[in-house]
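Fold this complex.
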Amino acid sequence: MQWAWLIPVFSFAVAPVIVLAGGRLTALSRVPGGAVLSIAAIGAGFAFFWIALLGWMDASAGTESCYVAAGTEALTCNYERTWFNAGLPGLDGSVALTWGFFVDPLTIAMLGLVTFVALMVQIYSLGYMHGDPRINWYFAVHALFAASMLTIILADSFLLLYVAWELVGVCSYLLIGFWHERPAAREAAKKAFIVTRIGDVGLLVGILLLWREVGTFSMTDAFAAVQAGTMGEGVTIAAALLLFLGAMGKSAQIPFHVWLPDAMEGPTPVSALIHAATMVVAGVFLVARAFPLFEAYNATPLLVVAIVGLVTALVTSTIALVATDIKRILAYSTVSHLGLMMLSLGAFGYTAAIFHLLAHGFAKALLFLGAGSVIHSTEEQEISRLGGLRKVMPLTTLVFAIGAMSLGGIPILAGFWSKDEILQAVSQGRNPAFIVFALITALLSALYMGRALFATFFGKLPQELEHTHESPPVMTVPLALLAILAVGFGFISFNWPGAFGGFGYFVFFHEGHGFEFTWWIGILSGVMAVGAFVFTWMVYERGSISLESARRRFAPLLRVVENKYYFDEIYQWTIDRVVLVFAGFVAFFDRAIVNDIGINGPADTVRRLGVALRLHVTGHLYSYALAMTLGVVALGIFWWLITA
Amino acid sequence: MSNFDSVALLLLILVPLAGAGLMMLMPGDRPRDSWYFALFIGAISLALSVLIFARYDYQAGGFQFIRTYDWLPGPMDISLALGIDGIAAPLLLLNGIVLMGGVVISQNITYRTREFFVLLLALAAGVYGVFAVRDLFFLFFFYELAVLPMYLLIGVWGSSTDFGTFLRTKEYGAMKLILFLVAGSILIWVGILAVYAEASGQGGGTFSLEGLARMAENGRFDSTFQTLVFPLFMVGFGSLAGLWPFHTWSPDGHVAAPTAVSMLHAGVLMKLGAYGIIRVGIFLLPEGAENWMPVLIALGTVNVLYGAVSAMSQQDLKYIIGYSSVSHMGYVLMGIATLDRIGMGGAVLQMFSHGIMTALMFALVGAIYDRTHIRDINVLNGLFGRMGVTSFFFVIAGLCSLGLPGMSGFIAEFMVFTGAFRTYLPLAVLAVIGAAITAVYILRLLARTFYGTPPLSLTSTDGETKAGWAEGLTDAGVLEKSVAGAFVLVIIFVGIWPEPLMRVINVSVTTIPGV
Amino acid sequence: MVDLVWFQLLSAALFVIGLYGVLARRSAVLILMSIELMLNAVNINLIAAAAHMEGFGSFSRFDGQLIAIFIITVAAAEVGLALAIVLRMYRNRSTVNVDEIDLMKW
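Structure:
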């Protein structure tokens, strides 16, 4: 278990090797060398995840750096190393910047998700990216991406977390802009990086604020200070909210959600990775990790988390309902589900949020990879031009259906259980308004998933797509593996007999609790999901229900939603009319005021004076002689005056 | 102490100086030979710098490699006193690296090559001198030696650019630079004389930095005097460090300067100013420094934000980097102004990091401009496809500039933030926002210049329309690539393992009064 | 002995005539001659004063004469140089009119 830090290190190590030697490896071995290295590294990471898990299960408090953490009351193992000293060691006020790692249930759960999904995505990419001239670069950044995310998960200090956090940002920038020749990809990459970077300002300020209070970057120390009450209420709340700002940026919460749908400009497996495992869940993870901060002092920050989560979930699920691009539907559904996770955290549903994070991760990876399979075969991603693909791509259809139903909350699939836990947490933790809107979100989520499924794979197959065929096994096998989890993952939340006892006894905050099932919520959400799927099936497969009249009646509303509530337009306007104008003004100020008036002004004055003064040099002898004479006369008069 | 140590610093100053002298004796019509000779001198300087840095004993700390040569004893008490501490040591190393890079990159200078290298080496000798002396008089002497060649280097070998709405000639750039720096020098000289006079009045007239610092430590300079004199140093040295609002010489100077000169200018020369504020201002006038630090940190923050926002709307590659230098020097000034161990350490590290990073950027811009004759980011496009390695290195430099972890810039900026958070919280928050704005203009630059597809034909700055322009474009040459590669290695090395630099810096930062 | 004031009057008259010549004449040669007049006016003044002021303070009989001889020597050299310049000027510009020779202005 003390070797858990190797999990990201494998991938970190191969990234530069691929960049430097990938081309040569490919030339030697005929398979893409970079891909093999990268997959081997993440595969090793996946293997070490099991070692970490088993090691943790064997460990007990008091042995081998393991203890029961104060905040979570969970068994935590913490290993620390010094990175470098800012200030002399041993002196007052010196700060050793450390890197170290936790192995606790939260970490282990996330490790499993990230290593597994990254492994699947990378294998899948072998097929999807086959023949791309920059495939080595792709896999190098992929490895770095996964490694950074794994570091976030393992980090035991806010500093290390921030380091990895930024690396995740830059990797997403590089991958979204992978096809940088496309203007859209270029802009999307820039947007992703800048929007998340704005959130990161909050994160960094929050981290430094904590450091100012605690004196170290160690999370354990910060949480201990909160527990002990040595950190003031104002600071704690401010720090928590600032951290949440960073989480909002990464997890694409409103109003920072705009980058995520555009991020699909990258290759589809990248979208799968970003949406399922490596990037957007980092925000949720951060809130979970810093839960002791959020929960202190009457949990004021958690209310903010809950509201932001709910608004995000609701607003973006309506957008997903009307989006016409299959990847865009999935992207908005991700935002919506992230909102649900935030809502769950905000409603003290710690376990539920993480559980949904995992279940959603498997299902979303599956959906994106399935969509990638469709795009790979048809080179089409508008659902209006797709349809009936189940006849030509049966396997993809099957796994996509599983993913969609799991995410839509069809009973006994993983998504049903996890969503149910969230709803239950919300109903217990927050006032009834929250549960009402959460249920609406759940319904919408089933509706748009059904729409994506039936519009793409059912209905009439367009003529030009008749010669489409199934993707190669290297792409479908990962899909099948993910599908198994999307179906069966939910069962681990049950109260199993024996040592394990269910997910609620594994990842928890304060105290573990067993599986609970509130009948009215379960039945209501189950019925809603099934109903939604049936409804969309009738619309898109049978064609027995037409939406035209509803469409006409709500045309103005529809237009607002189809335009994504004009978020992009507002931002664009702000950038064009405010930010760039201001920057232009500053540049103009620098040139016109500081430079031309402030600098050139005095210079010109001196020059003009010189021009005026030099006129006395006439070149005429007599004028000089006259001046001399007058001067002597003047001196004489002066002398006479002072002697007289 | 071995024999080498006692002459190391003298050698370090004399090698480029003697190189410059010897080069004047060489025939002027053989540019290649001049370049080889300059390479030789640069390599020796680099080797000496590395050796000295490596031999600096970070456990002992304090001034090392001490050697004093009497020059004007008696009441003036001026001596060529050599010695470096942990603040100067990384900067010596920086100068060695940037000088070598600058010389290598200058292989394509054909006009009056010999004279170019004579001046370049003289400049480098001046920089070495400033970092290596412990005497106020000689510090000023070497400071001037470093500054004055700049005028000729820009005025003779520079380039003029017509930006449509305004024109920037190389003469203008050179003149502006020299006027600013000489005006700054006057303030510094007045300050130096004032300090000397005050010390004489106290019965201890000397130009020795250590002697004066000791007097300051013993409270021999009264507080009013310090408060009156410190701004002379702050503004005088500050104008070389790009202190707002005395920064405008810097971007214009970059636009006019040839590549190697830009590298030394932003890479090393601007650091002289910051170093001067620490070494002269804070060491000699600690109380005055303390009184003025709120002003300095406020100006530093203005630097950060103002430089970043200005860079956001520039179109010319060199202007963008020039303003980004102004912005990054703001972090150095902020770090100094925190008078905090971490902030100050961050400031020194930022000097080193920014020196390498910005030199790298200018080297790459030079490589791009040599091939395309364009620096307008609205015109350049899709260089990734044609100049892959150059673009790759530029992306790394850009990421370092925006403070990506794993690169040297992050460590330095992070330490500055940390220090500032302890002392001036609101300004520190503003500086963090400045770092986010940096991301905006850097990404804008990268997206416009390197991504996308190259246009089929375009009109270059000199009005020529070239069809099939991008086809003939070649990547940077082996020399340029190796220089850039070496710089990138330094950036990443420091970013991942800053300990070798930090332990040297830390040991001396603690000796700064007030820290 | 003639009274000192007569010498001084003569000297002053010569000096003013010379000054007028320098200011009013156009020909470089005539200006030079006027300068000679002024110098000689000074010489007369000096010698006369020396003769009359013997034993006045620390002055001796020869001080005035010495300075006068010195002035004559310098004036000779000066005229030699100036005439050479005037000659070159005439060669170059075919004129010795100082009004037309105003190259060294602003």
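The two ends of chain C are 54 Å apart (CA to CA).
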